[in-house]
Specification:
This protein is of the alpha+beta class and 108 residues long. Helix content is 28%, strand content 29%. The chain has one domain.
Length: 108
């Protein structure tokens, strides 16, 4: 779990295992994913560490996005580009394992 004193630079939510999610973000360019500010920053120098803020458990999409929004508002991470995730037109009401993660940064 992330120490709240650390510099959280990004907050996100996922239904993936944390290591799979991290690989997706780190390999975004190779996978032709949209290169967000966060994904571009991962290509630079420094150490980015992915950790759970809310461990994965059974939730629907609205529940996990509400938690994500609250943590974005709490930490104000500099690499998040969107601060309201619950305004999507359609949300998945299926309950599945979902969690909220944070990414910390340390200079080399």
């Amino acid at each position: 779990m992330i120490d709240s004193q650390k510099n959280i630079v990004y907050v996100g939510s996922t239904s993936l295992k944390l290591e799979n999610l991290e690989a997706n973000h780190r390999n975004a360019r190779k996978k032709n994913y949209t290169m967000t500010k966060f994904r571009t920053a991962l290509e630079g120098k420094g150490v980015y560490k992915f950790e759970w803020l809310v461990y994965s458990h059974m939730m629907n999409e609205l529940q996990v996005l509400t938690l994500e929004d609250r943590l974005i508002n709490k930490y104000l991470p500099r690499l998040n580009e969107k601060y309201n995730n619950t305004d999507k037109k359609e949300l998945d009401s299926t309950y599945k394992y979902r969690g909220v993660y944070g990414v910390t940064y340390e200079e080399l």
